[in-house]
Fold this sequence. Notes:
about 400 residues; alpha/beta; SAM-dependent_MTases_sf
Amino acid sequence: MAAAINTRFMLIVLKNSVCFTQRRFRVKTKWAGTRPKFPATDLALQNFDATYSIQLGDLWPSVRAAMLSEQKYGALVNNFSSTADLITDFQSQGCIDFTGVRCSPGEQTGSQTDSALITTSKTPETEPVRPDLSSSINCFVYPRGDISRFKPARPDSNGILGYYLLDAASVLPVLALDIQQGHTALDLCAAPGGKTLALLQTQRLRFLWANDSSGSRITRLHRMLQSYIPKEYRTEDRVRITSLDGRKFSEMEDQTFDRVLVDVPCTTDRHSLMEEDNNIFKRSRTKERQRLPLLQTELLVAGIQAARLGGEVLYSTCSLSQLQNEYVVQQAVNIAQEEFGITVEIQDLLWLTHHFQETFHFAPNLSVGELVLPHLCANFGPIYMCKLRRVR
Ligand SMILES: C[S@@+](CC[C@H](N)C(=O)[O-])C[C@H]1O[C@@H](n2cnc3c(N)ncnc32)[C@H](O)[C@@H]1O
């Protein structure tokens, strides 16, 4: 069995490297006349080679190979559809619910179960804080080294889709937020809505405000919610959707939330290596790219302001960049303190890395937050996340 997986894995790696070579070759032959002189994907790779080889050192060649290979997806189960057959089907294909706690369809778990607590030989000396993962968020993945693809989701008899495909690592920021019964939450940069949907899967939120400054992306979010959430669960008093500049959120609304997700625009590293369309490394977008850390800091400060005292904020990106990750968090914490007199504490996410180390590769020794590193055997991420708690 293990040998078969290994052989299959080697074939997949070879196929991927051939695919990548072919991709570049095809682009050259087919589009020779119209191909940009400096493809943004090449500019992105040059930039990453220069910065990430220093930042990640010996880890960079392996992360680089993974990011240039086919990404792995997860299937986020939609608890608002009939999922019984679906789960049996995933299990028969050898898929694993990586969250480790799975509910029966429609069931809401009330307390933490022991299955949420995996102990392995890598257990740290001090037991990490126990997470509450009994939140009905269930996401299936193919096992390590298996890059089979999920089929597109099909609607159930009520027209509701059974699962949503996304980078499985992007469920982690939502799990880290630890949504509790009756909470209110703000998703400041929500579109196209993968994490909004994961937040709703908890079935614990009293109110969710999903915002995104982009009108066209908010339209996508609306469409997604229509396909996944029955009407009665997305009434205005439960789910509010706006298209506002998140930086101005605190000026516009006298609202505070138990939980705030700040999933900011970033260099979307994987996309930037693979797609010319909408690529932030295009020369015409240089200034926009350089301004990202400032925009990210402003959005995080706005998110901190929107949290109630004792409330928690989760900052996340899909970039490896220290400048967009740790530095932004440190800047925002300082600005919140110095300009607004708000004190936040950075929360330890050791429990999360410990719990999910069988599924994801985490970067070692970050100054603040945690980072999922892409790896050929588990090709998820990059996803950076850092959790903050407003204490004053
Ligand atoms: C990484 S994406 C969010 C992905 C989303 N959370 C999900 O899981 O599907 C970042 C989003 O930030 C939005 N954005 C950019 N600038 C913004 C701003 N000033 N205020 C609010 N949203 C903004 C973009 O339109 C984009 O949809």
